[in-house]
Write a structure and sequence with these properties.
Layout lengths: L6 E6 L6 H13 L3 E6 L1 H5 L7 H12 L7 H4 L10 E7 L1 H8 L6 H10 L5 E7 L7 H8 L4 E3 L2 E2 L10 E3 L4 H8 L16
Helix pairs in contact: 1-3, 5-7
């Protein structure tokens, strides 16, 4: 599918160890001609970690997307009434964010963006990255796998022997999964062997 001119929201949450892969995905969408609207969680906006400072990540995201960053609940709310997006991607999507979406807890920028977007019955694509996907968050994953207009980037256990509950999406498949989601289809298979790509 040609993504040229598609308005795609790209929401980024605090799985800091996957941000390098996220940046590659951002570049892929921009290079395909999509109009990319970046959205960041409070964690991305606020936390300096061993993976980089908040300012470094925000500057990089803005430079790649060439758009202003949606970084507050107030800025995210108009996504709904203004029908701003053809597709919203959350990558990486932490277990915390997944739990909030599954349970209707709208207390943060990215979950407000998801709620606002879903009210328009438009596709939401989730690329999970959580240490708790097969733990307490498994029930939230189950809810979202069965929620209308919610689609997933294929995922698997990234370290089943040392972190048996951890699930991570294949970030190299985000664009392909997005093409399916824009047609309201789930790319298959969803459960895959994670190969660290």
């Amino acid at each position: 599918m040609d993504l040229k001119g598609k308005k795609i929201g790209f929401a980024i949450t605090g799985s800091f160890c996957t941000l390098d892969k996220t940046i590659l995905a951002l570049e892929e969408f921009v290079n395909s001609g999509a109009d990319l609207i970046p959205i960041v969680s409070d964690a991305i906006k606020s936390y300096d970690t061993k993976y980089g400072t908040a300012r470094e990540w925000l500057d990089k995201i803005k430079e790649i997307s060439r758009n202003n960053i949606i970084d507050s609940i107030v800025k995210a709310e108009p996504i709904g009434p203004e029908k701003m997006l053809d597709l919203l991607i959350i990558a990486p999507c932490t277990g915390n964010t997944m739990a909030k979406i599954a349970n209707g807890i709208i207390d943060e920028t990215v979950v407000m963006a998801a709620k606002a977007h879903l009210r328009n019955e438009r596709p939401l694509l989730i690329a999970i990255a959580t240490n708790d996907g097969l733990g307490l968050n498994a029930k939230n994953l189950g809810i979202l796998l069965n929620t209308k207009n919610v689609f997933f980037v294929p995922f698997g256990q990234d370290n089943p022997f040392e972190k048996k509950n951890s699930l991570v999406s294949r970030f190299d498949l985000i664009k392909k999964a997005a093409e399916y989601a824009l047609e309201y289809k789930q790319i298959q298979p969803v459960l895959i062997e994670y190969r660290g790509i």
